[in-house]
Amino acid sequence: MKEYDYIKREIKNLLDADRYIHSLGVEKEAVKLGERYGVDIEKCKTAALIHDCQKNLKDKDLIEKALFYRINIDKIQIKSPQLLHGPVGALYSKEKFEIDDEDILNAVYYHTTGRDNMSMLEKIIYIADIIEENRNYFKGLDEIRNQAYIDINKALIMSADSTITYILQRKNLIHPLTIEFRNSLILEVESYEKKEKKSF
């Protein structure tokens, strides 16, 4: 993997000023969450820094790059090409920054849709993207921020609920991975709570 300072310089060149500030905010939040949940801090920093590396591409360019990287583009991504910035960003980072850590790459790949049974690093990048200090765009965000440090799974469910509600209100398409993501979190929380009850 390329050195952190090199990656940071390249990310600054790839993104507009606001998106770069956001990426630094996600990095800051991911580090704090990594400390809270015992995840490798260097992985948190790298995944957070690169998560939006292809976000400033136009829709047609994202589709072209997705085809170049042989990503299987589904019909929902065709309708909403910005959903591809995670998958394209992951494969771009693998090539450009020589990142071969699958956990880092998956955290970038799925940071927009989520997926079933995400690793803790994936969860951290997903929620850090939403709660970083520069974000202030929907009701209930402060509650999610607080919950993220108490129980990250419950914070993720709250976030998924907000996202799905937002999409439904606008009569847009919901990606199946987002549904799988929410369902897996609910099952995980239920399983944990059952074990906790048995231990008493």
UniProtKB/TrEMBL annotation:
The keyword Transcription does not apply. It holds the Pfam family HD. It comes from the Bacteria. It is an enzyme of class 3 (hydrolase). Signal peptide: none annotated. Residues 19-132 form the HD domain. This is bis(5'-nucleosyl)-tetraphosphatase (symmetrical). It catalyses: P(1),P(4)-bis(5'-adenosyl) tetraphosphate + H2O = 2 ADP + 2 H(+). One of its GO terms (molecular function) is bis(5'-nucleosyl)-tetraphosphatase (symmetrical) activity. InterPro entries: Diverse_Catalytic_Enzymes (IPR051094), HD/PDEase_dom (IPR003607), HD_domain (IPR006674), YqeK (IPR005249). Transmembrane segments: none annotated. Keywords: Hydrolase, Iron, Metal-binding, Nucleotide-binding.
